[in-house]
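Record type: monomer structure entry
Structure origin: computed from sequence
Chain ID: A
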Amino acid sequence: MKNLKFIFAVILIATIISGCDYVYPTKQTTTNTVDTATYIRKVLIEDYTGHYCGNCPLAAIAIDTIISLYGSKIVPIAVHAPITPGSWADTVSYGPHYRTNFTTPTGDIWDATFAMSAGGNPCGGVDRIGGPNNFRTPYSTWALSAATELALPVAADIKIANHYNTTTRVITDTIICKYLQAVDSAYSLSVVVTEDSVIDYQHFYLPSAHDDPNYVFNHILRAPMNGTWGDTLSTGHQPAMATFTKIYSLDLNTVYQIKAGKEKHCHVVAFIFNTITKEVIQAEEVWATN
C-alpha cells in the first residue's frame, strides 16, 4: 500500500508539472480597507466515496498527495455514498465485512444535489467549482484545480475558536467570518464535524481485487453543526472587512458513529459558499478537542 501511494504521488506530481443545537444572533462590523497579504487562502476538497468501491482508495491517495504539497491549505471531506441496493455503501449485499454505515443524511443530500454517486464513484471536486451541475470531477483533476484556486486572491477569512467539554462531550465553536473583498451575492456558512483514523474493511482493486480489513478512513463526514446547507452569513452588498460572528454547538452523544474516546480524531470544518451557486470561497478546519 505504501509503495502504491509513493508511485501514485510521483505520477500525480508529474501531471501537475506537465499540466447545531442552537445558533446565536449574527454580529456585524464593517471597515473599508484590507491587506490580504496577512490572510491565507484554503480550498475545500470533497471526495464522494464508498467502502465497496474498488477504485475509491485512489481518490483518497490523491488527496493525501495534494495535502503533502499544500499542507493545511487543503481542507478535505469524505462523503460516503447513500445506501441503496448495489451502491458502493450497501451494507447488505457485500457480505459480513461491510456492515458499517459511513453515510449521513447531510451527505446523502449533498450527493443527490451534486449528482455524484449516480455517475459512479470515486468523484468529487474542489471548492464546488461550477456549482451543482458541473462540480463533479474525477480525482485526477483535483491537484490542478486546487493549485488554481490557491493562486486566486483571498476572498474571505475564517477563524474558529473551539471548546470541547470532556464531561458532556459538547463541542462549542465561535466562528468569525470576514470578507476580504466586497461581495454582492448571498453567502452561507457550513460547519460540519469529520473523523479520521477509522479502521474498517475497504474493497480495493490494486494491486488486485481484495478486501482490506485494516484500511484507514480519514476525513469522514459525521454531522453538520448548523444544518445540511449551513446558515445564512449575509445577503446583498457587503463591503470588504464586513465581519460576522456565529456560535454553534453539537453534542457528540447524538452522533452515534463517534464513539466515546474517538473525538480526539475529529475536526470541525467550516466553509463559506455562495448560497445560490454553492461555490466555496474559503474553508478552515481545527481539531474538535482543542
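Annotation 1: The first helix runs from residue 2 to 18.
Annotation 2: Confidence is low (pLDDT under 50) at residues 1-33.
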